[in-house]
Amino acid sequence: MKVFIYPTNSLILSDLVERFGHEPLTLMHEISKKVNTPGLDSPPLNMTPEDPKIGLKYAAVEVPSGVRGRMSLFGPLISKAEAAINVRDPVVSFGCMGCARTNELVNFLIRAKKIPMLDLDYPSSEEEAKEFVYKISQFLKSLGSQEEKK
Amino acid sequence: MDKITKMVVINSSKVLPSDVVIKLYESNADVMIKETCFGVMVSGERAEVDKLLSETRKMDPYGIFIKERGFAPGEPHRCRATRRGGARPGFHMLETEEKLLPQIAEALRALDRGEIPQKKQIKKKLDVEKLKEIIEKAEVS
User: Fold this and answer.
1) Which pick of A58, A84, B106, B107 has the fewest CB atoms within 10 Å?
2) For A103-135, what is each residue's pLDDT tens digit?
3) In chain A, what are the domains?
4) What pTM did the predictor assign?
5) Residue A75, phi then psi, degrees to nearest 5
6) From the CA of A125, how many Å to the nearest CA of chain B?
7) What domains appear along chain B, each with residue ranges and CATH number?
8) Within an 8 Å CB–CB cutoff, is residue A123 touching chain B?
């Protein structure tokens, strides 16, 4: 099953989803498509005039182009998602991923899609980490069993 | 064919990045390998990289973490050599999560042992009436 993760570039979430036998939908995959597609040559991420137009599907034209540009990366991931794991208010979303409006919009769109979703906090102790990993493993196992039922 | 790059982040007391690199070279697979301070980067065809890294993970299942990377190793837009130093974009995310890896590794061990963790006790918020009481007491004194 294709599992959307938030933060979308998380090592821990991406690794755990893959470890438990599902496919993580990560931002790195979308970026790699842009970087490796021949014919596009504007660095650093090879954004094309088409990207903000793709973003228009998710945000209005008055919305800053940064949000629309980011949504052109997140959008295809959200549309492919069959389940989601969301970490609430990750510290890193203040830094490199720091577009608060995009992050809010991504969370809203995932919730609006009404797919199986797991909400968590990043662990700060060993006990919390055990609960974090246990919840993810149980959630991903339940997805597997759902697929078998079909 | 789909060409991808994967990052292998090593947080292990048994395995070093150099051990993983030797193991990868031994496999004789058609991939590009780069040893880094945090682990290894492997670039090649998706099927080949996935197969190779699932074997590599067995060296220390609790100490090796893998994720995909958008840029290939040495990509001029990301490589510090061509960007005159400074933190590589994405470094801070990796740094933040690497601190949690020992705890996640321990949690994975516990999961394999079949341990069921106790539910976290959620701290209750302060009741309004209780707050009023505290304010009244403070005013009197």
Assistant:
1) B106
2) 889 999 999 999 999 999 999 889 999 999 999
3) 2-149 (3.40.50)
4) 0.86
5) -50, -55
6) 7
7) 3-113 (3.30.70)
8) yes
